[in-house]
Design brief:
The chain is built from twelve helices and eight strands. The protein has one domain: TIM Barrel (Alpha-Beta Barrel), CATH 3.20.20. Helix 1 runs parallel beside helix 2 and helix 9 runs antiparallel to helix 10. By secondary structure, it is of the alpha/beta class. It is globular. It starts with 10 loop residues before the first strand and ends with a helix.
């Protein structure tokens, strides 16, 4: 398998939140409901186990369960982006094997976070773990702004040269930063951005193929993307301006995304009770009021 370019890897690929039951177990029914909504919205794919999925709070068994749920309930030709993160090399390898077994379309590697880790450690980790992904389209989550470590364009290009399946990367940077990075990348390195849909039109204009947001705004972002693709820029800009204040409120940090973004998603799904897994940011009365106002403006799914 020499050509890892996937022409279908583009657009809006929503990532799952992890919903919990009152007893702190994963609420599989709400996970299935999210998957169904993402498919029903005619998203360009589905993602899981990133920062928004609270991957750092999940056990190996729970991570495997979420991968299996996506495999079971998504159509076979639906793009499945699986983020790999753990605390040990052994578990990284196990999760990569599970992702392969469940026909991952795109494996996204997060760095192994350890005390005093630096950017060079991060790069060396990817050098050592990428051989495990042989045969599957693979990239990294280059999220220095959120994780604290990441790669520069030279290091990304070195991975590209060393691994013929390293052909898609997920960034977490402003459009200004990601534009400069894309200019340094090979033409067939597919670049996605995240950040909850912030600067979506700028991201697309500077060369990103799409974004990986959460479900809360994904239906609106899909419409914006479609308008962009159809060169209906005035409509795309109008729709973006309508949701931007809400995106800004939610995307203050990963903690606020998980606290309030998940609640926006839940309320739009008709779910009233949201249970948090420690450690978490407790919602304030004002925050809940603001969240419900956002939902009133967005409407239910």
């Amino acid at each position: 398998m020499n050509n890892f370019y996937n022409k279908n890897l583009k657009g809006i690929i929503p990532i799952l939140y992890t919903f919990f039951n009152k007893n702190n177990s994963i609420d599989e029914e709400l996970m299935k409901d999210q998957i169904s909504l993402i498919i029903k919205q005619k998203s360009n794919g589905i993602a899981c186990l990133g920062l928004a999925t609270e991957v750092n709070k999940l056990s190996l068994k729970e991570k495997i369960k979420i991968i299996e749920l996506i495999s079971k309930y998504c159509p076979k030709d639906f793009i499945r982006a699986i983020t790999i993160q753990s605390n040990t090399i052994k578990d990284y390898k196990k999760l990569i094997d599970v992702a392969k077994l469940n026909d991952a379309s795109w494996i996204i590697l997060q760095p192994l976070i350890k005390p005093n880790i630096n950017n060079e450690d991060c790069y060396n980790f990817f050098l050592n773990i990428l051989p495990q992904t042989k045969g599957f389209l693979t990239g990294i989550q280059n999220a220095k702004e959120y994780i604290g470590v990441g790669l520069n364009s030279k290091q990304v290009n070195n991975l590209y040269k060393n691994f013929n399946n390293f052909r898609a990367i997920k960034g977490e940077a402003s459009s200004v930063i990601i534009r400069e990075e894309i200019k340094e990348y090979p033409k067939d390195l597919t670049v996605f951005n995240g950040r909850g849909g912030q600067e979506i039109l700028d991201n697309l204009n500077v060369g990103c193929k799409g974004i990986v947001p959460c479900l809360d705004f994904s239906d609106k972002l899909i419409n914006i993307y479609k308008n962009f693709q159809n060169n209906n820029i005035p409509n795309a800009e109008k729709q973006y301006k309508e949701i931007l204040p809400s995106i800004v409120f939610i995307m203050q940090s990963i903690e606020t995304l998980i606290c309030y973004g998940k609640r926006v998603c839940a309320y739009r799904m008709g779910v009233k009770n949201i249970y948090d897994r420690k450690p978490f940011l407790s919602p304030s009365d004002y925050g809940i009021k603001k969240t419900k106002k956002i939902v009133d403006n967005l409407g239910v799914f």
